[in-house]
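Objective 1b. Sequence-to-structure analysis of G/U mismatch-specific DNA glycosylase.
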Amino acid sequence: MNPIPDHIKTNLDILFIGFNPSIRSGTSGSHYANPNNRFWKILHEAGLTTRKFRPEENHELLELGYGLTNIVSRPTKAAEEITKEEYQEGRLELRRKIQTYKPKIACYVGKGVYQQFSKKNNIKWGRQDVTVVPGTIDFVAPSSSGLVRMKMKEVVGIYHELTDLLVSLK
């Protein structure tokens, strides 16, 4: 199964970074395509989008100043299937993407994604005190997976902090 394309360009407001595509995303070619994934609902409820987008509209986020990528490009059923070598290669590639495209904010969709990228263990939700790539703010948000046990209201609240941060930067 082929990786799905990044939706990325220079000077984005936010670059959303996931673990890797799901099998559904790999099949459809769209980010966050699993029907159990709440990414699109979260963005809308947190005020980042004016409506709930569909996965097949993922490229339209670029017009809003948002991009989509993953730390590993290979689709899998679960993040546990990702190898150490894939993470190592993904860390280097993600660093290059952030340095090249210079988003204002890198939003890691899950603490585990940020942990793999930053190699830090003690991670809080929200804006991080120290960034990995200078010039880009690191923001850690909960995974949008339907497997996450946090209440939706709490998840949306953290993403709303991202909305507030973005407004404060403009």
